[in-house]
Amino acid sequence: MRNNFLINGSFTKSISPFDRGLSFGDGVFRTFLVKNGHPLNWELHYKKLKNDGKIFQIKIPTQKKLLIDIKKLFNTNKIYIGKIIITRGISEQGYQFKKNLKSTCILLKITYKKINHKFYSNGVKLKVCKTIVSDNKLFKGAKHLNRIDNVLAKAELSKSEFDGLMLDKNSYINECISSNIFARYGKIIISPKQLNAGVSGVCKQIINNNSNMLGFKFKEQNIKLLKLKNADEVFITNSIFGALYVNQIEEKRWKKSFCTPLIKNLILGIKF
What we know:
Blueprint: E1 5-7, H1 20-24, E2 27-35, E3 38-39, H2 42-56, H3 63-73, E4 79-87, E5 104-111, H4 117-122, E6 124-128, H5 148-154, E7 163-167, E8 173-176, E9 180-185, E10 188-192, H6 202-214, E11 217-221, H7 225-229, E12 233-238, E13 242-249, E14 252-253, H8 260-268
Parallel strand pairs: 6-7, 6-13, 10-11
Antiparallel strand pairs: 1-5, 2-3, 2-4, 4-5, 7-8, 9-10, 9-12, 12-13, 13-14
Helix pairs in contact: 6-8
């Protein structure tokens, strides 16, 4: 396992128990695919990482430094999952932090397991979770280390449920546990507007940037469960599986997908 991670650029065996990432979840992260040592959609991931660091006043290493670390760890032509965790750094006690703290950079190399092909061809089932997203407008869109909402929501899933819908306190759809969700109505693709919570994923940015090229119009707006169920097509996205169409939410079923394969190819840019 030693060669599966770097801490501050080194194959070290440990991290300080006083690291604020452990004590307070005081940090940010990004997850992405790595092929032939190259992180997919890297520019967008780094831009998001920098923005999240700015929100939380955490120093993010330069893009050059992170790419050197990625090349060092992923020196293979296989496909892996990469995860970058940046914590504020080490301090011994209390919530208060010094402005000059040196951030801790953890880079993980995680074995990639192919998504079962039946999920691409047959779609996936979603659960409507009882656990709601925490409400904090200052953090909306950011991928911080405080993921207890997602952990508890994941525990609600049965074996037949691939992911779960998470609502906000006003019963608007926010996101899924491990993905962003989209609904297609004719030629319009809608993604929930994340007013006070949720992660604005790289995949959402890719769809926004390229929807016109695919012949669709992209919009963000408030959406509740009833409206979602009236969609012509529903799909979820993340940087690992690309896009999967949803075949069932509660009693509502969808039997086919139209734009999901196009979105998957757009996000991944590779064939599996």
